[in-house]
Amino acid sequence: MKKALSLISDLSVEAKDILKDNNIELTISDLDNPPNTQELIALLKEYDILIIGVRTKVSKEILEHIKEPKIIATLSIGLDHIDNEVRESKLIHVLNIKNANTISVAEHIFALILALNKRIYESNNLVLQQKGHKKNLYERPEDISNKKLGLIGAGNITKEVIKIAKVFNMPISCYTKNFDKHRQ
């Protein structure tokens, strides 16, 4: 039986069921802090699968100690907390969640854009101070319709942001260092 360790304490019931259905024994970690490199090496010697988050940094130093295939599953989209050499290793298979929270993050971005343009934070504070009149605002709230939106990066989150921006008739300017990869 394969053994998995989750460094994420609130692993979903669905994820736990998938592991159980695949005859994988799951242990949920009680560590308060992410393991350092030496602790990670010890964990990888004991477990076949490690489930981590972005706070766990995985350095190439672990490769010297891995003698059999392992899986490192990160509950994130990004992989910048895992060294490139680890991601390219033949002994370690790295998994990520490619679309985790994509729509939620895009919606949050627009919530912030709207809150700033509509001066919601400032307006709320004025109401709490009993000065809730538009003449007391530093500047007049603005519409975002037809305002140009600048984006850096062209990944899944940006694609969702663009969908929302189109609803607001916003012209879009996007920069990515991998232009050919994202050409439409």
Could you give a short description of this structure?
The chain has 184 residues and is α/β, with parallel strands linked by helices. It contains seven helices and seven strands, in the order E-H-E-H-E-E-H-E-H-H-E-H-E-H.
Provide an overview of this structure:
- This protein has helices spanning about 15-20, 35-45, 85, 100-115, 120-130, 155-165, 180, and strands spanning about 1-5, 25-30, 50, 70-75, 90-95, 150, 170-175.
- It folds into two domains: about 1-95, NAD(P)-binding Rossmann-like Domain (Rossmann fold); about 100-180, Rossmann fold.
- Helix 6 links the parallel strand 6 (about 150) and strand 7.
- The longest helix has 16 residues, at about 100-115.
- The termini are far apart.
- It has seven helices and seven strands.
- The chain is elongated, with a radius of gyration of 23 Å.
- The model has no long low-confidence stretch (mean pLDDT about 90).
- It has a five-stranded parallel β-sheet. It has a two-stranded parallel sheet with strand order 6-7.
- About 35% of the residues lie in helices and about 15% in strands.
- It is α/β, with parallel strands linked by helices and about 180 residues long.
